[in-house]
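Lab notebook, bench 4. Still working through the backlog of constructs that have no structural model yet. Next entry is a single chain of 333 residues. Request: give me the structure tokens for it.
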Amino acid sequence: MNFIDLLHSLAHQNPRRVALPESTDPRVIAAAARLSERQLAHPLLVGPPDPIRQAAAQAGLTAPDTPIVDPTQDDRFDAYVDRLVQLRARKGLTAEQARELLRSPLQFAAMMVDRGDADAAVAGCATSTADVVRAFIRIVRPAHGIATVSSCSIITLPNHTAGESGTLIFADTGVVPDPTPEQLAQIAVSAAETFRAFFDTPPRVAMISFSTKSSASHPLIDKVKQATELAHQLEPDLMVDGELQLDAALVPEVAARKTADSPVAGQANVLVFPNLDVGNVAYKLAERLAGARALGPVIQGLSHPASDLSRGCSIEDIVDVAAVVGVQAARRK
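Model written out:
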């Protein structure tokens, strides 16, 4: 079974409520309909009803049957305002400022997740990553014990056996530009947890560098080595190794020559990159040159599941990312 079939099977077993705040984008409206038809999730379009219906009509779509949540007319609005003031008390947020923020479908959707009125949220097809991540960090908030919110992309490679039957987790691909060793270690642990939501096999985490086991010397290599040690301390039973070059992480023959005693080399299914430059370029290269599907960036380390989207995403990308966060939410119940 390929990853998309596996994902849909898992999502279909326990569909969750997924808030979609970019509800006037025709791609989101169409994705919501497909999620409902395939019983992969219970989508909630968050935004003003008339513009949503107008957008659907202009795109030649039927009027959405998906429930529409209008922030300004919702009975929970005042309670959400009180909650946001509480969350941002240290920043001096006033009730009026909170009201203004919660008129935004993105902020309201994040509050729905925080309050348990939605299980997860997906945004980003019409909003910058910075704005999406900021809203989710401020309102959905980091999970207990998590100091670094990060992201990953789920990469599925057609006709390839790398990773888990052609599927790998790439992290971080969208949030932390230049992680410290401590942050990189937390990214590794979070990426392993993302992997566990979909697979029964254990994650095997490769900390990627331009060196394998001190084949070169540089402060950038030292950072990856230190992060590997810290990841072991955070989760002693996690199979994580580094520093490893990409080919040593994925190709058994190369791994046998470079580091034969590694529990990860040659069979990694989670790749943790040293910075956002490398992670972002790597997933886009896989997508554009190797024909991979790249789902996400899925935000890691939040108290409830949420995901960003590429602004160039397709309808099916939105469907599949909504299924991803739905599966994550179901696993947490």
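Notes after review: The two ends are 25 Å apart (CA to CA). The chain has two domains: 3-141+304-332, 150-289. Flag for follow-up if needed.
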